């Protein structure tokens, strides 16, 4: 039972353009959502989060949008840079530290 | 600050054997969580330790056990290894109530033959 789904295994975007990574969830008890970035041979690094009481959170080039009725969240990266090339994981929690991760989306930003 | 460190980096074991993985949390962090990341999957929560006690546990069998020491470092033990236990094992540590402050280590790659 995959409670958090990232249906796009990979995404390729030109440098300077917008990258949009999507995530869907099924458990309505989830109230906190996070995005992590992972480079090869490194652990995931926290990027940005959003509480279920909000529908948008921004941090520099990164914006996360949450649509609770659709149980959908997205991460926007504008403008995309080559250094953003990594695997991005969406994760969710229900008032605990037990994070449920998606399977990840590999983003490649090309010049 | 060295961040979260894990040892060993890689490990090869045979089915039925036992393995111990080690984690040193980021300086000052008192809460340690362990995750299993199988190939092509996202990390799966195994358990969390705080004040030397297991506080939360994911859907993993009793073959998976752990320990936290007074200096907050932690061990993950897996008994009776199965081929399906082959994965990257990630340790994460944090200090404080918000999970945003959680830092992950680089992981231990376990291969079971």
Overview of this protein structure:
The complex is a heterodimer of chains A (111) and B (113). Chain A has 111 residues and is mostly beta strands. In chain A, strands 2, 4, 5, 9, 10 and 11 form a six-stranded mixed β-sheet that branches. Chain A has a five-stranded antiparallel β-sheet with strand order 1-3-8-7-6, with no helix packed on it. The radius of gyration of chain A is 13 Å and the shape is globular. Chain A starts with a strand and ends with a strand. In chain A, 33% of the residues are buried. The mean pLDDT of chain A is 95. In chain B, a hairpin with an 8-residue loop joins strand 9 and strand 10. The mean pLDDT of chain B is 94. The chains are: A mainly beta (111), B mainly beta (113). Chains A and B meet through strand 4, strand 5, strand 9 and strand 10 of A and strand 4, strand 5, strand 9 and strand 10 of B.
Brief sketch in words of this structure:
Chain A is built from no helices and eleven strands.
Q: Which sheet architecture does the biggest sheet of chain B show? A: 7 strands, mixed
What gyration radius of chain B follows from the Cα positions, in whole Å? 13 Å
Query: Average pLDDT value of chain A?
Result: 95
* Mean pLDDT across residues of chain B: 94
Describe the global form of chain B.
globular
* Uncertain stretches of 5 or more adjacent residues of chain B: none
Q: How many β strands of chain A by DSSP? A: 11
In DSSP terms (H or I, runs of 4 or more residues), the helix count of chain A works out at 0
Tell me the structural class of chain B.
mainly beta
Classify the secondary structure makeup of chain A into a structural class. mainly beta
Low-confidence stretches of chain A: none
Q: Shape of chain A, please?
A: globular
Order of helices and strands of chain A: EEEEEEEEEEE
Instruction: Considering residues with a beta carbon less than 8 A from a beta carbon on another chain, report the largest interface and each chain's count.
Output: A-B, 24 and 26 residues
């Amino acid at each position: 039972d995959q409670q958090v789904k990232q249906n796009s295994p990979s995404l390729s975007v030109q440098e300077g353009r917008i990258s949009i990574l999507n995530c869907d969830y099924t458990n309505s008890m989830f109230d906190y959502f996070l995005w992590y970035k992972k480079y090869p041979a490194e652990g995931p690094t926290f990027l940005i989060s959003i509480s279920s009481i909000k529908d948008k959170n921004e941090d520099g080039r990164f914006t996360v949008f949450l649509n609770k009725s659709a149980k959908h969240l997205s991460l926007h990266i504008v403008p995309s840079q080559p250094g953003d090339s990594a695997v991005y994981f969406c994760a969710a929690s229900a008032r605990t530290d037990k994070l449920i991760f998606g399977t990840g989306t590999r983003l490649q930003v090309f010049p | 600050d060295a961040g979260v460190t894990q040892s060993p980096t890689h490990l090869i074991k045979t089915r039925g054997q036992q393995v111990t993985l080690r984690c040193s949390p980021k300086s000052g962090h008192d809460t340690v969580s362990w995750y299993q990341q199988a190939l092509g999957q996202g990390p799966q929560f195994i358990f969390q330790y705080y004040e030397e006690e297991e506080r939360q546990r994911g859907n993993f069998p009793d073959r998976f056990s752990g320990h936290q020491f007074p200096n907050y470092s932690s061990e993950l033990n897996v008994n009776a290894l199965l081929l399906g236990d082959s994965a990257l094992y990630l340790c994460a540590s944090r200090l404080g109530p918000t999970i945003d402050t959680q830092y992950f280590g680089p992981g231990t790659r376990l291969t079971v033959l």
